[in-house]
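In response to a reviewer's request, we include the raw inputs and outputs for one of the modeled complexes. The three entities were modeled together in a single run.
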Amino acid sequence: MTASDSMADAQSLDVIATGGVQAILRRPKWATLPVLLGGSVLLFWIITALTVQWWAPHDPIAIVDTRLLGPSLDHPLGTDALGRDVLSRTLHGATASMPVAAGVIVSALLIGGTIGAVAGFFGGWTDAVLMRFTDMMMAFPPILLAMVIAATLGVGIRNAAIAMTLVWWPGYARLLRGQFLAVKNYDHVIAAESLGAGRTRLMLRHILPIAFTPLLVLSTMDFGGVVLLAASLSFIGLGAVPPYPEWGSMISEGSRRFYDWWIAMGPGIAILTVVLAANFIGDGVRDLLDPRTKS
Amino acid sequence: MGTYIARRLALMPLLLLGVVTLVFVVSRTAAADPIASLVPERLLGNEEVVAAARARWGLDKSAPEQYAVYIKNLVQGDMGTSFRTKQPVGHDLAERLPATIELTVAALAIAAIVGIPAGIAAAIGRDSLVDHVVRLFSLIGSSLPVFWTGLILLYVFFVQLEVAPSPGRIDLRALPPDHITGLYTVDALLGGDFRQAGDALHHLMLPAFVLGWAVMGIIARMVRASMLDVLNQDYIRTARAKGLTGRQVVLTHALRNALIPTVTILGLSLAALLTGAVLTETIFSWPGLGSYAVESTRTLDLPAVMGVAILGGSMFVVANLVIDITYGLIDPRIRVS
Amino acid sequence: MVTRRFGYLILALFATLALALVACGDDGDGGDGDGGGTATEAAAGNKIADDQKPLVIARAMDTLNGDPHRAFCDTCQIYISAVYQTLVALDHDDNSTLIPRIATEWSASDDLKNWTFKLNPDAVFSDGTALTSADVKWSLERLANLKGSPSFFMDGVDSIDTTDEHTIVVHMAAADASFPAKMNAPYTAIINKALAEANGATGGDDAETTDAAEQWFLSASAGSGPYMMESFQEGDSLRLVRNENYWGPTPKAAIETVIIQEVADAVGQRQLLEEGAADIAMQIDPDTARGISNAGVVIQSVPSLNFVYVGFVVGTEGAVGSDIDLNQDVRQAIQAAIDYNGMIEVLLGGDGRKQATAIPNGFLGTANLPLPERDLEKARKLLASGGYPDGFEMDAPYWSTNVYGVDFNLMMQKVQADLTEINVRLNLQPLEASVIFADLSDNKVPFTAIYYAPDHPDTVQYPQYFAMIEGSRWSGRAGGNQGPIVSATQQDLYEKALLTDDLDERERLYDELGREMISDAYILPLANPNLILAYRSDLQGMHYSGCCNLELAELYRTTD
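The model returned the following structure tokens for the whole complex.
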């Protein structure tokens, strides 16, 4: 019995066991409180990233008021050292962080996934060479590699994104390679092969759909990690360029004006909520696929 | 098992060579010319001076030549001279390493002291309040940007409450203890000066706590998962069925087995610790490898960057090796692949 | 139940940890906020003659270079002027008159080409050996031969003779009235030849390639100044100890040990200062200073001779804006578009002044120069006549630094905001020092921001660096790949000023030169920041030093 079979069973059990009101309020097993919470927060930020330019209270780059004002009704998160509205800047920060994180993960999945799939499928020398290269990349403390790449490429979000992608793909490569190694020996794959299916078809139609699942879990959980790394790079000065309101660089500005604590507060909470939400969802996805560890 | 270890150890130098090559290639694609850190700004227009500096620092050779020279020196233990500090990179690293070790070990200790019992409690009391609280805290801990936490805590404890000490490793006016290991706490104790050891410890606490907090969560969750695994095993159920009380079960059977992968868990935290160390050291003006790495990458101090990469890479590789060996000991299937 | 007990255990652990942090109570001196209220005058008590308590200076240290003939940074200046001595000193009351130090008197030949310095026979180094003309000759020649950052101080010197043990004569290629003033710069330090040579230093013509003492200079000093180097830990601290063999001419230092401690930002510095853990905080910016109200701390805002500016490079390639013709009209347009008043307000909270041209307020010739004003009308007209009525886009890479209380990131964002009003759009690129200077010399930077501090008290250094004359740094830089820009008018004025000893005439000439530089508009000074002196109230002797940033030997503490 596969994981998905027992899931289906459990679900139907749920429906049978709880009748009446419960049946009406019936919600899928995965929709636990943390997942719903995380999902709505993430949804909020995604929508913000897409639409904020139309509803933010102020222009994030314009100087709108006296500098270094504390939180007030006009400026719920106060103003920064130049007199810009911190709340608007924080909201606008999503337009950088969300797409960048998504972009990095998708790119890393594509690059790492391809390398891992090829290595796992073909085995032998291909596998050895590709995996040694992957090992080499993984022998690095990630932030160090990201720093070096970002520093050599130059400042800017785009270069930081490239740096992060290069740091992230080895993990996916390793994972997918292991999966491919295992799944390629499954009965249905061997059967398809003996029926004459070509390599590409085998990889894409037969192996990948099964092998991909852990990757999905990992990448969901990684979303938060990428946002954190991006903020860290900006904090050191290797990411977004002023006056762009990126969360990490906002915290960096705020760290130099300690006593005006509100400047760093907005972006910090923003990062916390995004990463927490991503982690909740990641947890939920993992619990869904590995019932032993959930409550 | 022996051959597995031997094979991995034999691969290590190759891996490190790969790391060095990787950093070399990456850093040589830098758009900026390092010559500006070697020649005084006023003389950058002077052809003679620039050429002389290039020759002196070996920058006039082609990239493959520079690479060969670097490797040749490296195997003799010479990591070159830092463009920024003008000191040998090896000397710089040796000076900075103890500070980072002190910080990381302290952070790990704090993380383990809090994380391990928390994980155990969460596993035992599955679904209870404790479980949810622990999971929530660990999740929050690993979701917070380390540099932000550091700033908030600095603000609260240093600025408002005024209980945290000054930045740095010991009191500003004090002389550091005589150098034996470079770890101020240890050196002070070895020298018999308890007050100084206490001072060093006091300075260590906030940065170590900030760094440890990020890892605490990871440890708690891993311990919890490991305990849950063990608690679900047949032999535990058998023990319970035999009538042993819950506590006996935990203390005698489950705990022992669940903690076997502790080394693994601690090793896996290393990655998070190293990342966190870079940022933590920057905030607390802690003169360790992390802040050195930031300064070096920012100023494109190539020899220093290579040095940090080699050192960081080695530590990482060794840690991964230890983890894999431990896994190999537990699960023989892995050794084969 | 097992769970509950474990749960309580966890809570207890958390509580203990929190308590431990709080209870590991006060550190050393603890808070010093008795009485509160505003900062008061420094307590005038009795001087402590032999002060054993170390003096702690909190600052963000630049990467220290201990070799005075190679160094060129602010922290280096403080260190070198405490540990080494120069031929002449500066009178603090006016920060411009030269007074004797190693040299007791000096005079020039009639053609202003040969300068004779008589040395004080009492002068000795920290190890007790005598300081003679041989040391002076060797040191000055080494300064020139090392071809390091400060070597330009010896530009124009042909040779040096030692007529006897206590006299040297400097022969210059061309007349130079400003030479003695240059001998005040800390980098013209006189080094103990014997000691330095024993540790790898060389001073001959090949010094550039043979000198090997750079590392040694980070662990020891070889000077005659009031302090000596005790130890240096990169990224951490620099410790100086009093030179017991100090000969003068000023009295021996009162404070025995001085520690310069790395504290990266103003906030940390402020906290240490308020607690008493640090005696001086060197990079408190005006905003932070305003927040300090502690009876134990003195805050003084004094005019300084430093300034921050933006500059143009007309001959670049590969950057956005390289194809823009940055002619005089365009430059003047940008000059008129910047909100100078706002700049002083935003960057310095009002603690600073505008500056007319690249010669700081207070130097000879600046008294009557017109200060810049914002005029958007004029700016737009000039931009149109310059050929860009619809504005243009331009890269603006700059050194991402924080100096004299000015955050360059903030400054450039303000400039960027100002210029959008005339539709000039800047692409800001904050960079590290080595990167920006490399790019500048590669002619990739059309517009950037830098700062400048005086090297010595004579006005001549400014045209020598900023004016469009032969050999000036900015003449070469501003031209970029089009070659140096030389203005015959400016060249003429500069040369005349060098030749005359008449102060009034020099003032008139520099005034004219200044006006030329304003209309040239290659260099636009944005602000002349005040210096914030922040120190404990029991400390005396703090003042702004035109040459050396901070003169350690003059500091002493008083008892209440």
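As requested, we also summarize the result in words. The first helix of chain B runs from residue 2 to 28. Chain B is about 75% helix and 0% strand.
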